[in-house]
């Protein structure tokens, strides 16, 4: 470090001490300390001088001028403690740590926003229950009462927080939030290190991690570390007692009680928290392994063998959308109501996992946009129903009064259809195609293609063509998709669903055959059913 750099370092440290250091100066100071080991010694000496000046100002009854104090201190030879001089590395770490803390304090006010909503998942915040892209900004001090559903927020520092209703939650700043009651999970990348979650009884400081926090009605809190480490402070101690603190690492948890109860440590339970899948955990399959191309319009791909999040009762909370081909944004399927969550069967079709529905469960995807032409693939198996065998049960519904659905009407009647409401409340039917045969416990690859552009609809089951019909209803929508029931919550499925693909296009003949064959091979499902079936026209009614 040359004389000019040393002079600049002293100038920057003076600014730091008198509170005039701005963001640009702070970055310059950090660079000097990082790149010049001798600067770290100068830093320690400068800080020691500053501390001695402060002590003299406090202890003197006849206070001389600041200049006189500086002359007095400067005239006294100063020797750093031996433990500091012997440990250059530790001194550098002190410098970096303090600088980092100052940056967090000084630059927080320069963040572009405190927090913003990035996802609403079937929650009761404002008018819209669903939102898949974030634009709504929240100011510091904003308190949110979430009665149900899941709300995902991005903070200005870069941390992501997922709040699970019921909860009361406050945005304190771009670097801090307050959980009064309920549950949340936090994911803080390196740039958001030191992000803090406060509760009535604790304060959790991120040290590069993802973790969950739960607050009971009495104010006691639990902190569960999923990955990395955090520092937890017990706020419940009163008087002059220092805050008790503990470091928690991956798979560790701690309970912080009210009053003066000591911290209790135990194993973390990730299943007790709802977590938001991150883009770096979404499995992107190589294009060479897929039967379709990047321009075929894939917008949803759910595979029960990937990204299924379970709760403490081993029921399915979320089903992650796989990113492949042209599908670049995940629209995951969710169920926030614990009593309506389906189950995961570890061995269903060909011994592979599937989401299991027992007649009262369903899932809903985040809002998904598709146009006039759509292609749908579904791999599943229908199970025997104990009662009401004549009541329809829905495998999948496109989530509006004008929708595509794949429905089982009787034990021996499986159909695809498009419905649109008449003005008198009755439904007009388009694209009706059906198979009259008992398909209970038969593994199925269902492929349904609907093109309003070409007025053409077609249904394949296990690779066999069930016929074609007209497609005169426009099915363009931007809605959640319902899995296991109709959009109004009726007609629940009894059976398993292993895989779903939705394309925002009418696939060409070769691609649809290749994709159907690829799924059949994957689940060892034989081609064909050995039956022929004339299509029912769109004007015909269900049985």
UniProtKB/TrEMBL annotation:
<dbReference type="Pfam" id="PF04773">
    <property type="entry name" value="FecR"/>
</dbReference>
<keyword id="KW-0472">Membrane</keyword>
<dbReference type="InterPro" id="IPR012373">
    <property type="entry name" value="Ferrdict_sens_TM"/>
</dbReference>
<feature type="domain" description="FecR protein">
    <location>
        <begin position="179"/>
        <end position="231"/>
    </location>
</feature>
<keyword id="KW-1133">Transmembrane helix</keyword>
<protein>
    <submittedName>
        <fullName>FecR protein</fullName>
    </submittedName>
</protein>
<dbReference type="GO" id="GO:0016989">
    <property type="term" value="F:sigma factor antagonist activity"/>
</dbReference>
<dbReference type="InterPro" id="IPR006860">
    <property type="entry name" value="FecR"/>
</dbReference>
<keyword id="KW-0812">Transmembrane</keyword>
<dbReference type="InterPro" id="IPR013320">
    <property type="entry name" value="ConA-like_dom_sf"/>
</dbReference>
<feature type="transmembrane region" description="Helical">
    <location>
        <begin position="88"/>
        <end position="108"/>
    </location>
</feature>
């Amino acid at each position: 470090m040359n004389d000019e750099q040393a002079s600049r370092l002293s100038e920057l440290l003076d600014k730091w001490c008198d509170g005039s250091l701005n963001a640009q100066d702070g970055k310059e100071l950090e660079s000097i300390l990082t790149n010049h080991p001798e600067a770290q010694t100068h830093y320690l000496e400068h800080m020691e001088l500053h501390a001695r000046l402060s002590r003299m100002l406090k202890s003197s009854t006849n206070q001389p001028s600041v200049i006189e104090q500086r002359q007095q201190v400067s005239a006294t030879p100063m020797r750093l403690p031996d433990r500091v001089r012997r440990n250059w590395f530790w001194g550098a770490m002190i410098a970096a740590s303090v600088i980092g803390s100052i940056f967090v304090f000084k630059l927080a006010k320069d963040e572009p926003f405190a927090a913003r909503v990035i996802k609403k998942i079937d929650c009761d915040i404002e008018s819209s229950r669903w939102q898949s892209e974030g634009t709504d900004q929240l100011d510091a001090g904003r308190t949110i009462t979430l009665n149900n559903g899941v709300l995902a927020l991005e903070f200005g520092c870069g941390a992501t927080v997922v709040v699970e209703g019921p909860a009361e939650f406050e945005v304190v700043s771009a670097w801090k939030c307050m959980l009064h009651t309920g549950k949340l999970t936090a994911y803080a990348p390196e740039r958001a290190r030191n992000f803090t979650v406060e509760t009535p009884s604790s304060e959790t400081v991120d040290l590069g991690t993802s973790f969950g926090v739960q607050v009971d009605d009495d104010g006691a809190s639990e902190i569960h570390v999923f990955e990395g480490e955090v520092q937890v402070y017990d706020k419940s101690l009163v008087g002059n007692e220092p805050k008790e603190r503990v470091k928690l690492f991956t798979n560790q948890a701690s309970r912080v009680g009210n009053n003066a109860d000591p911290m209790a440590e135990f194993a973390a339970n990730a299943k007790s928290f709802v977590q938001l899948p991150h883009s770096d955990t979404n499995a992107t399959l190589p294009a060479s392994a897929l039967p379709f191309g990047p321009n075929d319009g894939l917008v949803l791909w759910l595979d029960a063998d990937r990204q299924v999040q379970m709760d403490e009762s081993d029921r399915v909370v979320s089903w992650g959308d796989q990113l492949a081909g042209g599908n670049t944004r995940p629209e995951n399927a969710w169920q926030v109501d614990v009593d309506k969550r389906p189950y995961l069967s570890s061995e269903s079709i060909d011994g592979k996992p599937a989401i299991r529905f027992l007649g009262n469960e369903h899932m809903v995807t985040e809002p998904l946009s598709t146009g006039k032409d759509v292609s749908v693939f579904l791999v599943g198996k229908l199970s025997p129903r104990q009662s009401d065998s004549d009541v329809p049960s829905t495998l999948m519904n496109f989530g509006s009064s004008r929708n595509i659905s794949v429905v089982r009407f009787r034990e021996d009647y499986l159909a695809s259809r498009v419905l649109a409401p008449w003005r008198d409340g009755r439904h007009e039917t388009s694209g009706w195609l059906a198979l009259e045969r008992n398909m209970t416990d038969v593994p199925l690859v269902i492929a349904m293609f609907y093109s309003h552009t070409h007025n053409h609809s077609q249904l394949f089951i296990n690779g066999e063509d069930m016929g074609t019909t007209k497609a005169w209803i426009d099915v363009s929508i931007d809605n959640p998709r319902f899995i296991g029931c109709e959009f109004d919550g009726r007609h629940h499925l009894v059976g398993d669903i292993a895989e779903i693909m939705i394309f925002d296009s009418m696939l060409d003949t070769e691609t649809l055959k290749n994709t159907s064959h690829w799924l059949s091979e994957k689940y060892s499902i034989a081609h064909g059913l050995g039956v022929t079936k004339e299509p029912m026209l769109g004007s015909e009614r269900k049985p």
